[in-house]
User: Fold this.
Amino acid sequence: MYNKGTIIPGLIIFVLFVTFPIWFNGLTTAGDLPKPELPPGGEKKCVESADYMRASHMQLLNKWRDNVLRDGNREILEIDGKKYPKGLQTACMNCHSQKEKFCDSCHTYAAVEPYCWDCHLTPKETASKEAIH
Amino acid sequence: MKYAFSFLAVLALVLIAWLGSMIPGMQYLFGVAIPYLAILIFLGGFVYKVVEWAKSPVPFSIPTTCGQGKSLDFIKQDKLDCPTKTSEVVARMFLEIVAFRSLFRNTKSELHEGPKITYESSRWLWIAALLFHYSFLVIIIRHMRLFLNPVPEWLRFLDFLDAGAMLQVGAPLLYASDLTILAGILFLFGRRLVSRNVRYISLANDYFPLFLIFAIVTTGMLMRYFLHTDIVVVKQLLVGLVTFSPVINAEIGSIFYIHVFLVSALLIYFPFSKLMHMGGIFMSPTRNMANDSRAKRHINPWNDPSIKPHSYAGYEDEFREFMVDAGIPVEKELPPKKDEE
Assistant:
């Protein structure tokens, strides 16, 4: 083999790059799975099935946002006799009141940073703002 | 039909993963066994190929020179295109790898009536190659968020930039790199179809990686934007893979297995195909040698050390008598004969 001095270090660097996730996770910890906390009120029913919500809630929220803000369609959904106004704060957060323990657990795990909170407030933040004013 | 064959091969791979992953128990094969096998073949094959190349001797000094070589002091040397020092070679290689300088020089030749041939600079290939390769790099780095737990801050920032470049379109946010890789790969494919010269020299093994990567991009985009699957269980499996404790969750959709199977196919195919230009670019003697053969003698490694160099002076010394006899001019005359005196 010629040019061992450059080729072997080069190959080692390449293998280290490819196996990066292995030693990165090995050096820190494998980490825990997220455990989103279910609604504190004990509510069991959502607007859609849990499977659907897990995979596609962001699209539902996006659709609601477009309906309400862009099309002015504030129709109130009625599912199984329960009424849901289309809104993160007016519907979702009524049951899932703890963003930090519900939304954030999976979002942090999957490194997703939704921009909901650029405008919306969590109930906790609302309370603290009300206290100031 | 070279492209039809490649297309059918990729389609077959999709079908194998799609139908296969629906058979109970086969998820383990598609989600764990094949990805492990693929990464092993990829790494082993890559190292094997590079070592194999490193064992081949370079008999001659063959750098391609694309500019003024080092000459007299008042003639300006083109240090990047005709390097004579290691530092210049490193600079040339670096720019070749990160900026594809040799594609930048691409020209298009056309035959006009006359007959008259014209050359014009053609940089579309360069632009599409840059788009494609850099998008691919960003996408690979971005995927690390599904393998690393916790996700490092710089990775979140890359994600933020990539999605931010599209100004928050859709949910989940549309990535700029998804669009640019599509644009790049469609150009690279279209070029093989439209340009007659390139079409003539394109083989099935040129089309296959294009279709395969196109299918990987498409399934990935389908999974992110349309056929959603629960990302948490996907990440659970992927983090499991890199910590050697994979867990298959029944909720993972078929689209995920198709995507992963295609990526595994790419990894397995990689070391044995033209895709090895990733390692090969470093090993090209035409790029990684300095054009200093006049200053430094390049020794052919397969030379027999027992054969010594034979200079002209030595040759003449050996054959002077015969040369003089035959009337061939010599540089040094025969020593005067003593008995003539």
